[in-house]
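Milestone 3.1: sequence recovery, worked example.
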């Protein structure tokens, strides 16, 4: 028989947890929790990542908003970068607005750096 573990804490001094599915949570800064708790969030799989998204209606039109863009107040034409690459970590300290070109360069450099990690004594084949 599989036992379910206790649910994770819903708050901490540094973050608040918001459910985005049956067993998934996004985290946010305490100062954003009240705003974000008014939405019904869900986890949405993109090509490589999972993001927290919610639907809302304005002027009889349905819109979808991403949690990270709402928290970072990302202007149209820019992207919101997750500093630690964890897309469900939507704390203010983890989000940076930048233009699309800078974001692409950042991820290109990051990919190259991971591909060519230096060989150390611990990683050398015997």
């Amino acid at each position: 028989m599989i036992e379910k573990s206790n649910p994770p804490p819903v708050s901490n001094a540094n973050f608040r947890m918001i459910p985005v599915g049956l067993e998934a949570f996004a985290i946010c800064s305490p100062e954003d929790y009240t705003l974000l708790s008014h939405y019904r969030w869900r986890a949405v799989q993109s090509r490589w990542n999972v993001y927290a998204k919610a639907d809302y209606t304005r002027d009889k039109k349905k819109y979808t908003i991403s949690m990270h863009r709402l928290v970072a107040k990302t202007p149209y034409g820019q992207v919101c970068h997750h500093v630690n690459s964890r897309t469900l970590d939507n704390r203010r300290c983890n989000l940076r607005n930048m233009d699309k070109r800078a974001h692409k360069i950042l991820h290109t450099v990051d990919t190259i750096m991971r591909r060519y990690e230096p060989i150390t004594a611990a990683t050398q084949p015997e």
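Residues 100-115 form the longest helix (16 residues). Strands lie at 16-19, 25-28, 42-45, 50-58, 61-66, 78-82, 89-90, 95-99.
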